[in-house]
Amino acid sequence: VKRDIITIDDLSNEEIENLFALADTFLPAHPEDGESDGPARVRGRLDLADKFILASLFYEPSTRTRFSFNSAMHRLGGSVIESADPMTTSVAKGETIADTIRVIENYADVIVIRHPREGAARVAADYARIPVINAGDGGHEHPTQTLCDLYTFRREKKSLKNLNVLLCGDLKNGRTIHSLVFALARFGARIITRPAEGLELPPHVRRRLENDYGCITVPKEKIDSLAEIPDIDLVYVASKEHLPFESPADIVVNVQLRKKDLSQFDVCYVTRFQSERYSSGEKKSAYPVVDREFLSKSHYKKTRVLHPLPRVDELAYDIDDDPRGAYFQQASYGVPVRMALMATLLGVGKASLSQPKAAKESYSNSEGIACPNPRCVSNDDAEKRYLVPRFWVVPTTPPLLRCTYCEVEVKAGCVGSISTRRYYTDTSVLKSMKLPDVIVFASEQEAQKAGFEPARTPARKSLAAR
Amino acid sequence: VKRDIITIDDLSNEEIENLFALADTFLPAHPEDGESDGPARVRGRLDLADKFILASLFYEPSTRTRFSFNSAMHRLGGSVIESADPMTTSVAKGETIADTIRVIENYADVIVIRHPREGAARVAADYARIPVINAGDGGHEHPTQTLCDLYTFRREKKSLKNLNVLLCGDLKNGRTIHSLVFALARFGARIITRPAEGLELPPHVRRRLENDYGCITVPKEKIDSLAEIPDIDLVYVASKEHLPFESPADIVVNVQLRKKDLSQFDVCYVTRFQSERYSSGEKKSAYPVVDREFLSKSHYKKTRVLHPLPRVDELAYDIDDDPRGAYFQQASYGVPVRMALMATLLGVGKASLSQPKAAKESYSNSEGIACPNPRCVSNDDAEKRYLVPRFWVVPTTPPLLRCTYCEVEVKAGCVGSISTRRYYTDTSVLKSMKLPDVIVFASEQEAQKAGFEPARTPARKSLAAR
Amino acid sequence: VKRDIITIDDLSNEEIENLFALADTFLPAHPEDGESDGPARVRGRLDLADKFILASLFYEPSTRTRFSFNSAMHRLGGSVIESADPMTTSVAKGETIADTIRVIENYADVIVIRHPREGAARVAADYARIPVINAGDGGHEHPTQTLCDLYTFRREKKSLKNLNVLLCGDLKNGRTIHSLVFALARFGARIITRPAEGLELPPHVRRRLENDYGCITVPKEKIDSLAEIPDIDLVYVASKEHLPFESPADIVVNVQLRKKDLSQFDVCYVTRFQSERYSSGEKKSAYPVVDREFLSKSHYKKTRVLHPLPRVDELAYDIDDDPRGAYFQQASYGVPVRMALMATLLGVGKASLSQPKAAKESYSNSEGIACPNPRCVSNDDAEKRYLVPRFWVVPTTPPLLRCTYCEVEVKAGCVGSISTRRYYTDTSVLKSMKLPDVIVFASEQEAQKAGFEPARTPARKSLAAR
Prior knowledge:
By secondary structure, chain A is of the alpha/beta class. Chain A contains twelve helices and 18 strands. At the A-B interface, β2 and α3 of A face α2 and α9 of B.
């Protein structure tokens, strides 16, 4: 059974640790002479993957990701076929993702895809018989960047446990940030945010931190060790066993005691303003900068500064020579990490992946609700020829639908039963229905337009009865 | 002596069969576990061509052709140097095809070229000392696509003989169609056309089907087994030994008897509207669509549906899961077929090619007639620095000149003798003249403008005298 | 210690001869059958560099350079990762050269870079731990083209000594020309110029020919053997031991005696109009053309015609079949020469390079003078984030500053002492100052604006005192 890496959730913590152990074996134990002044890097060529071809499909510009995937494949002994510019391909003639992928899968053994549409990599994975790796799909996810980030944390800090991580900049649109916060939460980090104004972590990410990863959100004022640090917004304290306090109620009481827990940042992770995801004029004027002066506070003495690059002005050149700057090392680790990942997906690495989790049942009905995200692949005119909206049901009250492509969530307005042609405004009725009979509408009006009538039992009663 | 593949006519039927037998050896005898649900495909890497470099020169967008050629070269063990975007090359500085090719031939062992100019691949072949493969030259030919098509027919239908092939869509501009119909005629297929309105096979293709391949054209009404099928236009019945009737005169008589011969289509070959070959506004509104409903007629029970891809709307997604849809398999076969072709041209495949046929003598005089096709390479301002119009003489009455580059034909208006400075309106005089003494004009006025006088012997008499 | 090839000055004459001896071993001793009619070329694949990856970074269009570098790496057994279009990389997101290079150096073993900014390759070399090869930086230099040129001279003329070389065309903007004239001067050639009107060798190149290479400039009229040749401008006679006369004063006397020395041109080197370095409308109408008629003079009987290609109209197609035309052979030699260079830089070639010369001390002060060349990398807004102007001091009177990036020179207006806050208009005072104390201004006004006062001792006196 093939494995795809579309979001960081496609790998368990144990699998990540196994990949990292394999990546370690690709790096030289001792840096060669003359290299002691820079990042450790992979050299030479193995023959692990010499029978394999990587298809690199980049529908958006890339330097690090494309070059390091290609380099990784060559270092493993394999070959690369690639497109760095979609306008040189049949995309220029209107070809859909599903068609492109069902062709390319015959020419290669593993596919890496970057695409401007959110959810595009999931579509690619659904249609390919060979492993697909998401190299960034719009503002959604970029899981191998997250693997490189985590690998850098681990190499620089010796462990992925108990880290205090400060996230700076555009936390709203940076796809690398979204993958990263979920992974950090899983490894029990304390996440401190320092967003540009208006560019906080989006609500669906916060909700998932809380719902899926048991994070507790603490405003800065509640943790006095942070009082003197400017611009800090929120702290996400992940998974109960890593809390510096016993229960949410204890926060205010206990933060006094655990002051030291947040007195030193292990990592300061800086991101640039994602101007290409904005319309012109939308650019914010104030953007938090990390420079030597910022790092002069005692909190940052042992901090490692990371940045997924490219940088613009948010990370000053004056820390390039500072031993705390680890961003070029981070870029360098793209090769060993991607080597480990591809070797493992191709079945030639020593790391082994567990069987994929059984896919969660998803809801789909082309007549019902659509994903509200205009950048979602399911809203692309060409892709709509064959794609129908598809959701996971998030069991909150009221329930949410989470798009299986872009993971943006939408509130269900009312729920219909196809067999009875009735609809319910209390969407918790979903729990007692079989998915093939379900149709979800954004509002009662939409349901009525589609010819559905209000259910005889009011929704509230129906809920109460169960 | 090197061999080039510029049109499908550059390979004999026997050579094609030999290439296909070699291609078979590159495919797995049994699909691997977990792949049984999709097209058979090549895996692994051989070392047949590990000393060789392919130069992939794509001056127009491509997904399938470029990726499958590159994949094929890697599967053979070789390397690739490539340009997927002409604006990144010296074309941006005005370099001609001949100059580019005379440079690149020193950097590679085989050249694959796609170019918007019709006849460009022939120019490349004329100037290269290494084999050149035409990967599509404007609306002219795309012979390796035809090889993939034929290979799919043969794999799906066990033989290339006696096939009934329905061609749908844009038969006018699809270069894949032109290569294909000639090849089908050579293998004795019955070709049934279902063109979009105004996009029938162009006259020069029809003429060649009749003149060069002995095809007989039968209107649909004459073959009652086709009566119930909508939109069908013409049937081309190829090469006499495959006719379902003895002679053209027998058609009306015999079609009743051979009703069964056309009751089942072996292949339905669908093509998209070639919008990039049109000026805007020229797009036709009605375009024949192939979908599950269309295929529900009894004629299509055992049909295989092919499409060179990309598709737009002419091939519905609802047959993607239908076992009759073979278009992704067809795309997959690009690898084994192109492996067989390149290995053979490089002299490392087991298939052997005969010596090339002696080139037909061609007529050329830069002062005389020019190719009438504005998209012909010989009409490109840059290429005119060194290219002169060049034609084969088609021995019809009146004779035609067929451009050796783009194969578009032009009627000769009158023929001059350079030594006598006389011209003849009866162009059949050509037969009795030596080519170096010949100059052909589009009209008498052109001849007179060039200082030629009418021949003393009237053309008709001259002809009668011979 | 790594070596970079940024200008032709980065290689000594002996190193160049060693590289050429290595390049010879890559070419077949005897051209294969069927190839006798064209340039000698490299075939097959070695395993010299099979552990290495070349990063090809092309920020401007290229055919010959990119394809031949990539081919050379494959022929050596290595792999290539590449970008042929900067808009598909993070350049599109505003990434600087220094950042791109510090990332890419981790993915490859040698970097080849072409960039529109003059001096960009020097910046790349400064920031990379792996060897960097300049494949053309704006109008500055293109040293591997010069190596190919020299290699062609040597193969065609058996030696690099005592050559008479005619340079035709755009001598102002052709970067290949600037590298070439310096190399020719070093090997003792006589350089005769035939520039297009207004496109003579620029003053800084002439000055370096005279100052650095001891060339003497002789107007055409002084050498009567050249009298009958049209359009010739100047003759540069290089390095005293190759002079056909004893001292500059002897020129007029001796040219009569040495008439034969300039009666035959060994090489006619043609260059195209570099239209991409011009604003529109600036194109000159008259441009010297080399064609069969031009070559009919007795001076050109044994001449070899070279051209870095692509050509436009300055080199006629009518000499393509003339045995004197060596430009396709010249293009072909790109492979063996670049194989030799990369193998040597990677430490796997048999040629050995000496240790690099100790870098000349350079002057830098971001408050002082800036490079006057608007196309210099040090004047690029993005690169200014980290780059400061940097100069070598040319010990002429008055002294010049030569930009270490683009090598354009600027006159120093006055010189300040940072410690005393005084400035001197006689810039020869520089000789007696320590560089860290120096600040150079373009004019006295600039110095005063920066708060500096005139020196008490007038500059002239200060000079006299030393």
